[in-house]
Amino acid sequence: MSRAGPFARHGIRLPLALSEAPDEAGVVRDADGHEVFTVNTEGTWPDPTAHAVAALLLGRANVAAPRATAEAVEFLASALDGVRTLLAPIAEECDAALAALQIADDALADLRDRAGAVP
């Protein structure tokens, strides 16, 4: 059985992704758009913290996701965009975050150049 098997048994199709809806901080959805879990259901954490924790958890789960080359490129682009989303709010106040944000921006631009029109 593949590493993605336990997810598939429960109707969860990998890869997981952070919800892009502005009112769904910390919500993680599967490849079909179904909600899988929510970090910080009480809403006591700031949105960037909820996103960061959710991103760490979904990143670990996505290691099991089988991918064709195009899917891997899309997954990488999504991961880099997630990193940019997490770093942007603090980049103006923290030199390390600003440097990491620039690296993520450069990597995403390079990926788009090499892969063609990556969303």
Description of the molecule:
The chain has 119 residues and is mainly alpha-helical. It has 4 helices and 3 strands, in the order αβββααα. Strand 2 and strand 3 form a beta hairpin. Helix 3 packs antiparallel against helix 4 (95-115).
Protein traits:
single chain, 119 residues, mainly alpha, 3-stranded antiparallel sheet, 8% strand, flat
Would you count the extended β strands for me? 3
What is the 3D form? flat
Cα radius of gyration in angstroms: 15 Å
Give the mean pLDDT. 82
Give the biggest beta sheet: 3 strands, antiparallel
* Cα-to-Cα separation, first versus last residue: 32 Å
Order of helices and strands: HEEEHHH
Helical amount: 40-55%
Pairing-aware structural class of the strands and helices?
mainly alpha
| Tally of helical runs | 4
Low-confidence stretches: none
Strand content: 5-15%
Output the strand order for the largest sheet: 1-2-3
